[in-house]
Amino acid sequence: MGQSSLVSANYQLLVELNIISKEGALREYSKLTSSGFMDLVLEPLPFMSSITEKDAIFFSLAHYFIQNGDMCQDPELVLMAYPEKQEVHAYSFQQAIPPVFHEALDENGRERKLLGNQLNSFLNTWLTTGIQQQFDCTQWQAA
Question: Is the pLDDT of residue 58 over 70?
Fold first, then answer.
């Protein structure tokens, strides 16, 4: 799948999971549960909108676990949604253990294409797996 169709497919998966509406309305901070699996946590990140000149909606999706009293991401993806184009692009990936952090944009705001492609592909797999694990998109809860 080409990158253009992948970012569009990812947007459609977010719509299917009721994370964002087709028109671009993002859910409020909430979590989605599925028996036997880690909760999926959605966190809007409006303070990040100044990072790009484009009209992106920033938010993160994450699974968390507790270790020694600390909440640990396993993993967390920060995403940039563009409702007018019906696209979503991965901005960053982080995982607590082992510690990993990657950003798809360099310090000058230019896309790191290979890393961006890898993160968008990971997002596609992650969202598809969430749907297969029967997360009930109608059961979002305030977190």
Answer: yes
